[in-house]
Design a protein that fits this description.
By secondary structure, the protein is an alpha+beta fold. Helices cover about 25% and strands about 25% of the residues. The chain has four helices and six strands; from the N terminus they run βαββββαβαα. The mean pLDDT is about 90.
Amino acid sequence: MRFMMLVIPKGYENAAPGTMPDAKAVEKMMKYNEELQKAGVLLALDGLHPPSMGARVSFSGGRPTVTDGPFIETKEVLGGYWMIRVDSKEEAIAWASRCPMADNEIIEIRQVQEMADFPPDVQKAAEGFSAMQQGQS
């Protein structure tokens, strides 16, 4: 099973453009990342720039509206993610529990939908999806 562990860092919703993490925090996180890698469960990981450097595209009546960050009244934002492959939700929780996060920060764990999770009609409608994931045409 694949799980995405989403990092929700406290205060990142108000971070100025170009805000970077503290070197000591990165050092601790790198040790954690190495543990994931050595255990053979790490598939991908990335950090994200703060919302003040991003944009949102919302839709109404089929038309897109672009709003540049920062975003008003945002309470929680993503700061990064890990994609891991483990045998259960409990194992994903165990890995998230070992992460060196600061007080009041959150890791949200979400299982990735696999094609086998869907009924046959949805699988048929999504033909070619696996090739897209692998960058094939």
